[in-house]
Amino acid sequence: MTAAPERITSANNPLIKDLRKLAASNTAYRKQGQVWLEGDHLCSAALLRGFKPVWALFSESFWPLAQPIYAQAAIKNIVVPDGLFTEVSGLESAASMGFVMDLPAQPQIQPLSASLILDRVQDAGNVGSMLRSAAAFGFSQVIALKGTAALWSPKVLRAGMGAHFGLQLLEGVEAEALDVLDVPMLVTSSHEGDVLGRVKLPMPCAWVMGHEGQGVSALLMAKAAIKVRIAQPGGEESLNVAAATAICLHFSSMQGGVSADQRL
Fold first, then answer.
1. Percent of all residues in the chain with a pLDDT value above 90, rounded to a whole number
2. Where are the alpha helices (DSSP H) in 2-93?
3. Where are the alpha helices (DSSP H) in the chain?
4. What is the pTM of this model?
5. Do 187 and 101 meet the contact criterion of CB atoms below 8 Å apart?
6. Is 126:241 a contact under the CB 8 Å cutoff?
C-alpha cells in the first residue's frame, strides 16, 4: 500500500527551493549531489534500469491518477498544488510528476569498453542526442572532456530521453586521462582520412566527436589511430556533430558487431 504523501503548499519550503535550483540550473546537481527527472518517460527509464528516487513529486491533480510504479517508487512522496508544480518545472508544459535521484558516482574509465568521447561539445541538445546514439549502437562508455555541456543538466537529460541510465558516464575528464584507453581512437575530419564505409572499423573502439565549430582538438587528432571523412554527396558540409555521431557509431556497430562488454 502506498503511504499517504506529504503535502507542501509553500514555495519557500527548503525542499522546493532546492528543487527549483535543480530544475533551472545546468550545474546545480554537482553541488547538491542530486538530479531532477521530470515526466513519466525519464522516470520510467530510470526505474527500468534499477535507479531509485530519493523522493517523488506529484501535482495535486495528478496524484490520484499516479500509477503504482511511480507512487510506490520512493519512500517519500510529496504532493504540491498544480500552480506550484508549474512554477518549479523546467518545462514549458509541466509534466505533473518527477523524481529526485541521487547523482550516480563517477566511475573509472574502462580501458576496453567501446566508448564515445565528447571533446568540448557544448550544445545540450547535441549532447543528449549523442548519448542516445551511444546507447543505441552499443557504446556503453561516454567520456565528456572538460568544456562539454554538463551531462546531468536538465536539458541534456531531456534530450537524452533516458539514455543516461544505460550508460557509464564520466564528465569533466582531462584529455590526458584518455591514455588509459586500450582501444583504437577514431576521429572524423572534413579534410583528411578515408571515406567512412571504405575502411574497416575496429570494434571496440573510441570515437572522438569535437566542438561544434572547432572540431576535434589537435591533441586528440594526433592520438587518433584512424581518421575518416563522412561522404556528403549533396555538396554541403551540413552535418552537425550529433548527426555525424549517429552515422559513425552505426557504421562501427554494423561492421564490428557488438562485443560481449556492450551486451552486458
1. 82
2. 14-24, 28-32, 40-48, 68-71, 82-88
3. 14-24, 28-32, 40-48, 68-71, 82-88, 124-136, 154-160, 218-223, 241-256, 260-263
4. 0.92
5. no
6. yes
Residue (of 96, 27, 88, 92) closest to 64 by Cα position: 96
CA angle 187, 106, 163 (to 5 degrees): 65
Closest CA to 74 of 96, 49, 94, 102: 102
Whether the predicted pLDDT of 46 surpasses 80: yes
Give dist(CA 150, CA 221) in Å, integer.
23
Q: Which residues contact 254 (CB under 8 A, 6 or more apart)?
A: none
Amino acid letter at 173? V
Please report which confidence band the pLDDT of residue 258 belongs to, taking 50, 70 and 90 as the band edges. very low
The identity of residue 107, as a single letter, is: P
CB 15 within 8 A of CB 100: no
Query: Which residue bears the cell 544505460?
Result: 166
